[in-house]
Amino acid sequence: MAAWKRALGLEAAAPLGESWEVSFGELTSRIHRTGAPITTLVGTDFLGEERAGPALLVKLLDAGAPLSVQIHPRDDDPHLRPDESGKPECWYVVACEPGARIHFGLAAEANPAAMRAAIEGGADVSRLLASVEVEAGDFFVVPPGTPHAIGAGITVLEPQRVEHGRRGVTYRYWDWNRRYDAAGRLDPEGTLRPLHVEEALRVTDWSLRAPPWRRLGPVDLAAPARVELLSSLEGRGESIAFPVAVERLAGSGPRTLEAASVARALTVVEGHVELEGQRATRGQTLLIAAGFAPRLQLRSALALAASTPPR
């Protein structure tokens, strides 16, 4: 993972754990020079059916320490306010240190009483969660009601979906009993981070022991360029059924993506990708307009295309 961060020029920079690559939800991506919403540059027609449907958010996350255990409600949760929505998300593991783990889903012995007792008693809540030792290329989906946490030493690309004009809700289950000072720095004499215990336990799907994920294995970047569907609204082929559509592009040479009715974000993980004279390298994201079938040129590249299909 250090090599991946070095290639982005981030290793010597101030700590940086999260980058919002593309956002068409509550916090719309903005133009660097003017601060105006990106839709003023590309126009709403660029988004296609995404203008009135679910909104895409794509993040890069680098966890130097385990992230807090979180959970998201369903969109139809009756406790949500009119300006709130769920936030189904998925993770593609970009890089990881040996032995790094992702926690998601519930251990066999987990139940509401055991979870509440562990949280309130300051016990290790991760023992009540399922976990997986990850490899680069692993792909996870996180349905609503799933407790989850990205472990230390993992970099992921995280496409997610929120409703237009609404805020995606996250409840914090547990934060590893860490304490912080008034400036938010770790301090053993500080205070515990606020949790949302009642809300988190209420929205937990206690039947969801093993959420879906795939181990995709190593990629031959010298092979002819190809596209693999990882998730889709209807779960076509070997893809996982999920509200965020994710395609993996890998290899070298030309490849045309089928046109979609919504805009897509194409994030380069390895190598570089050329489109209409523009070149995107590792860590950069291209926006692809709705209705456009781009002819891409992959140069020893690995990239992920994400979109939110209309329901």
User: Total number of helical segments?
Assistant: 4
Give the CATH H-level superfamily of the largest domain: Jelly Rolls
Q: What is the average of the pLDDT values?
A: 87
Summing up helix and strand content along with how strands pair, one would put the structural category as mainly beta
- Provide the CATH top-level class of the largest domain: Mainly Beta
Percent of residues in β-strands: 35-45%
If you compute it from the alpha carbons, what radius of gyration comes out, rounded to the nearest whole angstrom?
A: 20 Å
Number of domains: 2
CATH topology of the largest domain: Jelly Rolls
**Ends: how far apart?**
36 Å
The SSE string, one letter per element, is HEHEEEEEHEEEEEEEEHEEEEEEEE
Q: Mind describing the biggest β-sheet?
A: 7 strands, mixed
Shape: globular
What's the helical proportion of residues? Answer: under 10%
CATH-level-2 architecture of the largest domain:
Sandwich
Write down how many β-strands occur, each being a DSSP E stretch of 2 or more residues.
22
Low-pLDDT ranges: none
Description:
The chain is mainly beta and 311 residues long. Helices cover 8% and strands 40% of the residues. The chain is built from 4 helices and 22 strands. Strands 16, 17, 18, 19, 20, 21 and 22 form a 7-stranded mixed sheet that branches. It has a 6-stranded antiparallel sheet with strand order 1-2-10-5-8-15, with no helix packed on it. A hairpin with a 2-residue loop joins strand 19 and strand 20. It is globular, with a radius of gyration of 20 Å. The model has no long low-confidence stretch (mean pLDDT 87).
